[in-house]
UniProtKB/TrEMBL annotation:
Keywords attached to this entry: Kinase, Serine/threonine-protein kinase, Transferase
Annotated source species: Dioscorea alata
Highest rank taxon of the organism: Eukaryota
Enzyme nomenclature, EC number: 2.7.11.1
UniProt protein name: Non-specific serine/threonine protein kinase protein
Enzyme class: transferase
């Protein structure tokens, strides 16, 4: 008989657990290179973050956790002599100041999460030199454009910039991020057309661009994102109708669209999207009747529709 933990054989799971625990202990007992300690001091000074440098930053103890007990700085990538900073998470800590270039001196850093603070300034182009997988900066006062250099971070999987003051078009270079799984730029001042280079991002699972004056037609390349489960394009200046290939997407769970310009007045052909749980279609001048197939969408729990200029309704289903 073979015992498993989920789909992983129990023996392998226990081996991985032992390795993980030993790695954590190893990191807590290891020191950082002086260059990374110096970088942390500069980052802390710029963010007005009072870290206790009499304590090992890799220890996950006093001076390196927030009020909830969450660890702010995590270490890994250990060698015989040193460990390295791999993650910095400082959510909702009333941080002020500008985004530090000095993150680029943490050469093993994978995650930067500075969400829900009061940070300003531009996204540093210098960050492109480190192997980031996750950049989360939502809910700040960040300005300027998304730097072209971010397109060099080919390891990047998640980029979240929601609710800032970012302007200008999405750079063509984002099409180089072939490992990108999610992009969230809701509620900024992104302008221009969606670059065709985004069609290269075959692994996209969510694409959230609402609340930006983005223009042009809904691009057909969205229909090639077969893993896409969430799409949010409310409050843009995009033009309909949906490209026919869009309706072949079968993994969509959450679809929120509003204020499309143009369009043909027809109800979108969503019958293949049988996994829909949330559907919002507002201010799209749809004059069709509600199609019968909506009643067969057994997963649908939340429905908001505008079927004419002066007629709209919403339902919580299930």
């Amino acid at each position: 008989m073979r015992f498993t933990h989920g789909h992983v054989p129990l023996f392998l799971f226990l081996c991985a657990l032992v390795w993980s625990c030993s790695e954590i202990v190893h990191c807590k007992n290891q020191t950082l290179p002086q260059s990374e300690v110096d970088a942390l001091k500069k980052i802390g000074a710029k963010l007005r973050k009072d870290w206790n440098f009499t304590v090992n930053p890799c220890s996950g103890t006093s001076g390196w956790v927030d009020k909830t007990g969450a660890v702010n700085v995590k270490c890994g990538a250990c060698t015989a002599n040193y460990c390295h900073i791999t993650s910095i998470v400082l959510q909702g800590q009333n941080l002020t100041g500008s985004l530090p270039d000095e993150f680029s001196n943490l050469t093993s850093l994978q995650k930067i999460d500075l969400s829900f603070n009061y940070l300003n300034g531009n996204i540093p182009a210098a960050w492109a030199s480190i192997p980031l997988t996750d950049i989360e900066l939502e809910g700040n006062h960040i300005t300027g454009r998304i730097p072209d250099e971010l397109g060099r971070i080919t390891s990047l999987q998640y980029l979240s910039l929601e609710s800032n003051l970012i302007e200008g078009p999405l750079p063509q270079s984002l099409g180089n991020l072939t490992n990108l799984l999610g992009l969230n730029v809701i509620a900024n001042n992104i302008i221009g057309r969606l670059p065709e280079s985004l069609g290269h991002l075959k692994n996209m699972t969510y694409f959230l661009i609402g609340g930006n004056p983005i223009t042009g037609k809904i691009p057909s390349f969205i229909g090639n994102w077969i893993q896409l489960y969430k799409l949010e394009i409310r409050g843009t200046s995009l033009e309909g109708p949906f490209p026919p290939i869009f309706f072949s997407l079968q993994n969509i769970v959450d679809l929120r669209v509003s204020d499309l310009k143009g369009g043909d007045g027809k109800f979108p052909l969503l019958q293949n999207m049988t996994n829909l749980n949330i559907l919002v279609l507002r201010n799209m001048s749809i004059i069709d009747e509600l199609p019968a197939y909506i009643g067969n969408m057994t997963m649908l729990a939340y429905l908001v529709l505008s079927l004419a200029i002066h007629s709209s309704f919403s339902f919580h289903l299930g």
